[in-house]
Amino acid sequence: MQESAVYEVAGRARLRYLTDREGLLGPLFLMPAVVYIVALVGVPFFLAIAFSLSNVSVGDTSLNYVGLENFRTIIRTPQFERALINSVLFTVVAQAIIIVLANILALILSEDFRGKWVARMLIMLPWATPIALGTIGWLWLLDSKFSPIDWVLVNVGLLGPGTLLGPRNHMTFLGREELAMASVIVVHVWRMLPLSAVILLAGLTSIDRDLLDQAEVDGASFWRTLFQIKLPLILPIMSIALLFGIIFTFTDMTVVFVLTRGGPVYYTQVLPVWSFFKGIQGGALAEGAAVALFLFPVLLAVAILMLRAARRMEIT
Amino acid sequence: MAVVEIRGLTKHFGQVKAVDGVDLSIQEGELLVILGPSGCGKTTLMRSIAGLEQPTAGEVLIGGRVVNGLPPRARQVAMVFQSYALYPHMTVFNNIAFPLKAQGGMTTEARKEKVEWAASLLGVEHLLDRKPRQLSGGERQRVALCRALVREPTVLLLDEPLSNLDAKLRASARDELQRFQRRLGITTIFVTHDQVEAMGLGDRIAVMNQGKVRQIGTPQEIYHESGDTFVATFLGSPGMNLMEREDCLLGFRPEHFLPQEAAEGRHNLTTFSLKVTRIEYLGADRLVYGVVDSVAGETRTVAKLPSTVTLSIESGESYPFFVQKQHLRFFDKATGTRTEPNPL
Question: Model pTM?
Answer without folding.
Answer: 0.78
